Amino acid sequence: MTADQTLSRSSLPSNPIVLIPSRLASTRLPDKPLADIHGQPMIVHCLRRAQEAGFNRVAVACGDEAIAGAVRAAGGEAVMTDPNHPSGSDRIHEALVKLDPEGRHDAVINLQGDLPAIDPAVVAAALKPLADPRIDIATLATPIVDRHEIDDPNVVKAVLSLRPGESIGPALYFSRRPVPGGDGPLWHHIGIYAYRRAALQRFVALPPSPLEQREKLEQLRALENGMRIAAAVVDTLPLGVDTPADLERIRQVMAAQR
To answer: Whose CA is closest to 29, among 241, 253, 240?
Structure first.
């Protein structure tokens, strides 16, 4: 084993927790976390995918009692949080403090609660960039292959510094615009994050930053304050659920996988 391999193994967080922030306030799909998908609420499917990724502890950070009840009925762990949190990052920070006041969990994966069909391997990949001790926050990206996504402002692009053959690299910027210019791949950012515990605590204490407010992208707050983000490249884009049409599509996809 090389020295670099030894460093990478020893630098990975040893006791991460997956937290799934969830609340009912969705305008396009009311009560989205409780939407039935083949007999189980959507939030329970997300919980199962995270558990299948091999993490020792997975919990749902709930903004509503109905979500907590559904998770607990399925045998999962749930914790109530302030329903008025402005972001998922704030919600998981409160959940972490409540669930682990002793500080045993050294990293937190923030998994969206609307990805019921996500490949567990994709969830696990979010932790990999933290093998580099210089990285504060890890995330994921995948190549843009559908040309309509290039100019779609709803598709966030990650500007990654990647040499040929590399699958993990620094994230230098995020934008709703098609950046960077020139020849080469464009990267579709996947909004799953792994924070070192101290990085999450620092991040939620920071005020909103100028570029964050301009682009409406929370992760820019970290970059603007000198925090380091790196992304792991994966080959699948998880299907999210935001609308009734998305819900019907995910039901069909998951039916085919059964």
So the answer is: 241
**Alpha-carbon gap, residue 230 to 128, rounded angstroms:** 9
What's the CA gap between 173 and 218, in Å, rounded? 12
From the list 46, 49, 48, the residue with the least C-alpha distance to 35 is: 46
Please state the φ and ψ torsions of residue 135, each to the nearest 5 degrees: -90, 130
pLDDT tens digits, 117-158: 999 999 999 999 999 999 999 999 999 999 999 999 999 999
pTM, rounded to two decimals: 0.93
Q: Do the Cβ atoms of 232 and 126 come closer than 8 Å?
A: yes
The CA angle 145-250-256, to the nearest 5 degrees, is 95
What one-character-per-residue DSSP string does 74-113 give? TT-EEEE--TT-SSHHHHHHHHHHHH-TT----EEEE--T
What number of other Cβ atoms are within 10 A of residue 86's Cβ?
A: 11
Distant-in-sequence, close-in-space partners of 103: CB < 8 Å, separation ≥ 6: 197
Structure tokens at 183: 């020849």
Dist CA 53 CA 62 (whole Å): 21
The counts of H helices and E strands in the chain are: 9, 11
| Residue 250 · residue 138 · CB < 8 Å | no
- DSSP strand pairing (107-110 vs 16-22): parallel
Tokens coding 101: 């006041």
The three-state secondary structure class of 187 is strand
Q: Tell me the pairing of strands 187-196 and 107-110.
A: antiparallel
Could you report how far apart the first and last alpha carbons of the chain are, in Å?
Answer: 40
The 8-class DSSP code of residue 14 comes to: S
What is the token pair recorded at 238?
A: 């998880």
